[in-house]
Automatic annotation (TrEMBL), chain A:
<dbReference type="InterPro" id="IPR003593">
    <property type="entry name" value="AAA+_ATPase"/>
</dbReference>
<keyword id="KW-1278">Translocase</keyword>
<keyword id="KW-0472">Membrane</keyword>
<keyword id="KW-0067">ATP-binding</keyword>
<keyword id="KW-0029">Amino-acid transport</keyword>
<dbReference type="Pfam" id="PF00005">
    <property type="entry name" value="ABC_tran"/>
</dbReference>
<dbReference type="InterPro" id="IPR050086">
    <property type="entry name" value="MetN_ABC_transporter-like"/>
</dbReference>
<keyword id="KW-1003">Cell membrane</keyword>
<dbReference type="GO" id="GO:0005524">
    <property type="term" value="F:ATP binding"/>
</dbReference>
From TrEMBL, chain B:
<dbReference type="InterPro" id="IPR051322">
    <property type="entry name" value="AA_ABC_Transporter_Permease"/>
</dbReference>
<keyword id="KW-0472">Membrane</keyword>
<keyword id="KW-0813">Transport</keyword>
<dbReference type="Pfam" id="PF00528">
    <property type="entry name" value="BPD_transp_1"/>
</dbReference>
<comment type="similarity">
    <text>Belongs to the binding-protein-dependent transport system permease family.</text>
</comment>
<feature type="transmembrane region" description="Helical">
    <location>
        <begin position="96"/>
        <end position="117"/>
    </location>
</feature>
<keyword id="KW-1003">Cell membrane</keyword>
<feature type="transmembrane region" description="Helical">
    <location>
        <begin position="150"/>
        <end position="173"/>
    </location>
</feature>
<feature type="domain" description="ABC transmembrane type-1">
    <location>
        <begin position="18"/>
        <end position="212"/>
    </location>
</feature>
Amino acid sequence: MITLTDVNKIFDTATNRITAVDNVNLTIGNSEIFGIIGYSGAGKSTLIRLLNGLEKPTSGQINIAGHELATVSAKELREARQKISMVFQHFNLLWSRTVRENIAFPLEIAGVSKEKRDKKVAELVELVGLAGREDAYPAQLSGGQKQRVGIARALSNDPEVLLCDEATSALDPETTDSILDLLTAINDKLGLTIVLITHEMHVIRKICHRVAVMEAGKIVEIGNVLDVFQSPKEQITKRFVSQITQTAGTEHALQHLKAESSEGTLVKLVFVGDRTEQPVLSTMIRRFNIDVNIVQGDISHTKGGAYGTLLLQLIGDKEKVTSAIEFLHNEGVQTEVIGHD
Amino acid sequence: MIETLLPHVNWEKMWIATVETLYMTAVSTLFTFVIGIALGVLLFLSSPGQLWANKLTYTITSSVVNIFRSIPFIILIILIIPFTILLVGSMRGPNAALPALIIGAAPFYARMVLIGLQEIDKGVLEAARSMGAKTSTIIFKVLLPESKPALFSGITVTAIALVGYTAMAGIIGAGGLGNLAYYQGFQRSRYDIVLVSTILILIIVFILQFIGDYVVRKLDKR
């Protein structure tokens, strides 16, 4: 659906030259929800703007749904854009138009008849859960409702690709979740490809199938969300993952625990996918007859399965503890001994 | 009673002068609105970073606007007399005042249009572009509707300035309340005529302001 080949984007200003996108190669499949995460200034905004031709690449090819965006004519670009919709951080609604008129706007641009527009708008209002608010003006809506209008507007031309530029960054956590649910529902129902950029790992975890991590214009890590969560390779990825699993907090807590817990063995377990749903622990306790103290634990649900970490204090006969750890290991649970008594 | 207080006021003449002032104001405001918006949109679109970013167009338009905005109106009327005669065939009467009024007010209004357009959120323009909108669509469906309150509060201010300009034009023979106040009132020391003319002009200004405020309030959905 989307292929980027050796894409570069360089901005020349009076005083210096900024490489915003540095030799990016990327393929995004049909009906995929693909996330791009990075801190501000990493080049992710420029990258997403390249994807609908708001910026032209300095070099390289961008192919989206059969259109070569780097070389298309102005007219073809306008047509292509009707199939590559965008949702914005600050909604960018026309305040002078009602909800209904805002959603109808792309259809007016595409020259769709009034009758068909009304029908489509009615469907979309229903889909995004804004029934009854059709005649309100954006100023009368909450942030979450505005973004629903933004999404409905983006869907009005039946696009093949939906680009979300920090679509939830201006919203509170609860509203963010409801908007993310809506995006997932749209992806399921309409099967369109969604590319979203964000600086929140929470967003990636909740709805993305795959993720690319950007730093200084480059994609430094890319993979299935679950894999990236389970074993982040780059330092920056680890930082993003820790936004959710809070291993940074754990590091600190560990020092305390090591100092305080005089007995037992401190073990960190990492469960991935199916393993989170099986009673491995109770089996272990029964079989090896040891005491287990749960120090800390959490489970993150990603689109590809669950991912959990558990910090245990195992108390009992030394040999039993060793074989218990071996048992866990054999069961496919990643184990890491952090401290002994 | 009124005759003793205002002995020299001829109400029929006063009425004719009022109609002339209203006529000059209305026609010149209408033309100023259209020309000012066209100039303002051109200025906006040709300014750096915009859709038609073009240094030459911007510099020329901007200079013309600035020059005509800077010439004092009373001098502008005299300067363009040959042009007025060419256009209207005479330099007397309400119609003869129109070219000067429009040339004087349109650049002034164009600046206000530009400011109004610059206040539109850049993201909204980008959104329209991202939907595949043509420039003409952006002008008529985004720029103008989104700046409506600014366009109408600007034309209100301009229309009120134009009432003042008609009075100045009156002094060089265009008719209207200014003409009446100056020739019939001031020059003959009939101050009752000056007073009544002034009150009528004030009423016109207040009504314009009232209508302008009302329209802007109705249009503003922000």
